[in-house]
Design goal:
This protein has helices at residues 17-26, 39-42, 58-74, 94-99, 113-119, 135-148, 165-172, 233-247, 267-280, 292-295, 302-316, and strands at 3-12, 15-16, 32-33, 46-47, 83-88, 125-129, 154-161, 197-205, 214-223, 254-258, 287-289, 318-319, 336-337, 343-344, 349-356, 360-367. The protein is an alpha/beta fold. The strands form three sheets. Strands 1, 2, 5, 6, 7, 8, 9, 10, 11, 13, 15 and 16 form a twelve-stranded mixed sheet that branches. Strands 3-4 form a two-stranded antiparallel sheet. A two-stranded antiparallel ribbon has the order 12-14.
Length: 369
C-alpha cells in the first residue's frame, strides 16, 4: 500500500521550503560565521544557521512552527480526526541542556510533546525518535505503518535540530583543518558542517483526496552496526533494496536520488558504491543530487529536508545541483551527479537517503501525486 504526503513544510538557513528550493536551483548556500561556542576551541568556523540566533528550546520552536504549517496546508484537523505525531531528531534539546543549570531543565522537554501540543492540542500521541541522522526517515516508516494499519487517520511526521557545542567539537576535532564549506561528492571535500532547522509533513491514507504533495511508496530500513561512525556500503545497499522491494519499484523506475551526501571522507564513497550496486547495476540511471552543501547537515531532520526537496523536484521536473561540487570523486564514476546547473527530470520515483551513526539507515521512495 501507499500513503499520501500533504503539507510538506521546511525551515532551513535559506528560509522556508520555497525559498530553500529557489536557492538550491540558483546554487546558493547559507553558510555563515559560527554563532555557537568558541570557533577556535571547537575548530569549527562556519555553520548553516537559522536566523535570528536561537535561544533556549530553539528546536522546539522550529518544530512547532513546521507542525503548525504542515497541518494548516494539509487541511487535517486534529480536533476532528485521530492524529498522531512522530518526531525524528538527532540532538533533541541538547543545546538547551548545554546552556542551563540542570536543575532548571524540565526533563520532559527533551521529548517534543509540549511543542507539538502547543500548536496542535488535539494530537492524541507524540512519539520522539532519536535515531541519529536517519531519525526522520525512520519516523516516515512508522507513520506509514500507522496509517496503513488504521492506528491513526493521519500522522504528522516532524523533525527539528539545533547544533550543539558537543557535536561541533566532534566534527571539528577530527578534521585536519577547519572545514570551510561542505562539498558533497567532491574530490576536495574537507568534511561536514552542521545546519539548523525543522521540517514536517502529514501522512494520510492514499484515498484520492486532492492537494497532496506526493505519494509515499515505502521506506527501507537497516541497522548494520558495522562501526560507530564509518558507514557500510553493504548496509546502505540493504536499506535501498528493502525500499525497492516494499514499494514494488525497480531500479529503472528511480529518476532522482536526493543523497545523504555529507562531504566526508567515508560517507560519500560508501554512498556512491551502494548507488552503483543497487541502482546502476539494476539498470537505473537516476539524477543524483544532495542539499547539505547549501543547508548543512541537519542531523535527524535531514531525511525530511531531503524529502521536501524531492517532492518539489518531482513537481517542477527539475533537480537542483549539488552546491559545492566542482570535481566529482572517482567513486562517483557512472553516477549522473547534478553539478553546477539544475538538471531536467523525467517521470519516475525519487529516492531519499538518510544514514546515521552505527549504521542506522533509512531510504524512502516517493512519487508525484
Amino acid at each position: 500500500m501507499t500513503a499520501l504526503l500533504m503539507g510538506s513544510t521546511l525551515l532551513t538557513c535559506l528560509g522556508d521550503g520555497p525559498a530553500t528550493f529557489a536557492a538550491l536551483l540558483a546554487g546558493r548556500d547559507g553558510r555563515r560565521p559560527l554563532h555557537r561556542g568558541d570557533p577556535r576551541r571547537l575548530r569549527v568556523t562556519y555553520g548553516y544557521h537559522v536566523e535570528p540566533a536561537p535561544g533556549q528550546f530553539a528546536a522546539s520552536d522550529w518544530l512547532a512552527r513546521c507542525v503548525r504549517g504542515a497541518l494548516r496546508k494539509s487541511g487535517v484537523d486534529p480536533a476532528r480526526s485521530r492524529v498522531a505525531c512522530v518526531v525524528g531528531t538527532g540532538l533533541r534539546e541538547l543545546p538547551t541542556v548545554e546552556d542551563v543549570d540542570p536543575v532548571e531543565l524540565p526533563v520532559h522537554r527533551l521529548h517534543f510533546a509540549d511543542a507539538v501540543r502547543a500548536v496542535a492540542p488535539g494530537v492524541r500521541e507524540v512519539v520522539t525518535l532519536a535515531n541519529a541522522c536517519a531519525a526522520s526517515g525512520h519516523a516516515l516508516a512508522l507513520a506509514q505503518d500507522m496509517v496503513e494499519l488504521a492506528d491513526a487517520d493521519a500522522v504528522v511526521v516532524a523533525g527539528a535540530d539545533a547544533m550543539t557545542e558537543s557535536m561541533l567539537a566532534m566534527i571539528g576535532k577530527v578534521a585536519d583543518q577547519p572545514t570551510e564549506r561542505i562539498r558533497p561528492f567532491d574530490t576536495d571535500r574537507q568534511g561536514v558542517l552542521l545546519g539548523d532547522g525543522g521540517a514536517a509533513v502529514v501522512v494520510v491514507p492514499d484515498d484520492g483526496r486532492p492537494g497532496a504533495d506526493g505519494r509515499l511508496l515505502a521506506t527501507g530500513l537497516s541497522c548494520d552496526a558495522y562501526h560507530e561512525t564509518a558507514p557500510s556500503p553493504a548496509g546502505i545497499a540493504r536499506a535501498m533494496r528493502d525500499a525497492l522491494a516494499r514499494g514494488r519499484v525497480s531500479a529503472t523506475d528511480v529518476a532522482l536520488v536526493v543523497a545523504h551526501g555529507t562531504g566526508t571522507a567515508l560517507n560519500d564513497p560508501a554512498e556512491c558504491a551502494a548507488l552503483a550496486e543497487v541502482l546502476v547495476r539494476g539498470g537505473g540511471d537516476p539524477v543524483v543530487t544532495g542539499i547539505k552543501g547549501a543547508v548543512g547537515h541537519m542531523s535527524g531532520t535531514a531525511a525530511l529536508a531531503n524529502l521536501d526537496v524531492a517532492l518539489r523536484s518531482l513537481c517542477g521536473g527539475l533537480a537542483p545541483p549539488v552546491v559545492g561540487l566542482t570535481s566529482p570523486l572517482p567513486e562517483a564514476a557512472g553516477l549522473r551527479l547534478a553539478a553546477r546547473t539544475p538538471v531536467p527530470l523525467g517521470p519516475g520515483v525519487a529516492q531519499v537517503n538518510a544514514f546515521g551513526f552505527g549504521g542506522v539507515n533509512a531510504v524512502t521512495l516517493v512519487a508525484a501525486p
